[in-house]
Amino acid sequence: MGGLKPMQLKKPARGATPLAARSRVSHRHLLAVAALTMAVAIVALVAPGGDVEANRPLDAELPDPAEAAVEVAERDRDAAGGPAPTREAAEVAAGPAAVDTGPETGETTPAWRELIVQSGDNLSLLFKRAGYGDRDVYRIVHTAPQGKALERIYPGQTIGFLADEDGALAAVRHVINPLQSVVYRRMDGGYSSERLDREPEVRLAWASGEIDSSLFLAGRDAGLSSNLVMELANLFGGVIDFVLDPRKGDTMHVLYEELYLDGDKFGDGNIVAASFTNKGETFNAFRYTDSAGQASYYNETGVSMRKAFLMAPVDFTRISSNFNLKRLHPIYKTTRPHRGTDYAAPRGTPVFASGDGRVIEAGYTRANGNYVFVQHGERYITKYLHLNKRKVREGQRVVQSQVIGTVGSTGAATGPHLHYEFLVDGVHRNPRTIHKLLPKAKALAAAEMPAFRSAIAGVSEQLAQRRTETRLASAGAVSTGNAAP
């Protein structure tokens, strides 16, 4: 009996898809078709005109090319098991971003790629970070009219790079500060350079304060920047010693410029006028530009506020309270006659030349520590002792307010302070009273006085009014404080 033979399953031909596999593929295709159908329906509902892009919100953000590059690189990394990409590398790989010029043209232009200069950066590093080489650096520096200036970059400044359609460097923009920038553009044979200057909007602002311990703290409490406080001290530095003279209750009023760019404040300008009342005596200073175009500060009678010597040769902004001169000598334990004035200050506080002159000695001795002696004309010498560091050398010319050293405790000193001496014709004089015997400051010429009085009239009235308001407010506060309950 032949009987029935077992069913023989035929092997699929090479390259043929098994039935189960064809079934799975068909199932996926059906799902894809269904999803596509739903997407078409949604598009039809949202954009009847068929233009999906036309319905994009105006403020919708376009994808960042660098971020997109990072995502692609991450997917490739996951597949290959490689390291994660950095954003810097992705930015270079993505190339220059494109900016739409608007619906009128429909064209796109390359965007500036800007890098902020960090500490330790140089042009070579910045260009490499932007995807360019030393050859590009060389061509700009050596062919552009102002190319050498590009080598002087500082932390916080911005360097912008513009690429052409082929990705080659087309232009570089050096933003020096908010008001100044230089653009270098590629041209036949090298690069051109163009300096761009912006004019800020100037607004006037008032600040008033009352001294509690020092001008520096009072100025900061009144909203003045450190630079403005220092400028204020320089204005009155010939008539007030801001380390030792200020007393609690002294007042100040300052009219100054604030600089705005695109509606935002970015800095301070000049002090226009200022008033300082010290121990009941009021000093005024007004900025005035004379007929020769020279701007300086004068009091209400036209006398220059710049005196031959500063009252205090130390940066008072580092000192929060006044120094008591009555003390026993810390080394010799005796009360010795002081031939100068001691200014207690933190180590490293800048020490200024009190007037224009020439350094006649700069060295070290066991008693003086690090010291600097300055000759001013034929009759005057100033001495600065116990310095931590000297910033000038013998024979060097110095100008008033130039930093010649820093406060220290070298030599016969137990704590950081500056010992300051003033000699006239070889004889020691009291640095705090000698200014009364010095030649008077330069005054405006008689021909300038009518224009000067006219220029300061309005501001002078405003200063007087503010002083009156401050005095009345202070008197009212005292009266209220003394009133019976």
From TrEMBL:
Keywords associated with the record: Hydrolase, Metal-binding, Metalloprotease, Protease, Zinc
Listed cofactors: Zn(2+)
GO CC, one annotated term: cell envelope
Source taxon at top rank: Bacteria
Alphabetical GO biological process terms: proteolysis
Region of interest (Disordered), residue spans: 1-20, 73-107
Localization: Cell envelope
Residues covered by the M23ase beta-sheet core domain: 337-431
GO terms, molecular function: metal ion binding; metalloendopeptidase activity; peptidoglycan binding
One Pfam family linked to the record: LysM_OapA
Domain Csd3-like second N-terminal span(s) in chain numbering: 207-324
Residues in Opacity-associated protein A LysM-like domain copies: 112-193
PANTHER family the UniProt entry points to: CELL DIVISION PROTEIN YTFB (PTHR21666:SF288), PEPTIDASE-RELATED (PTHR21666)
Protein name as it appears in the record: Peptidase, M23/M37 family
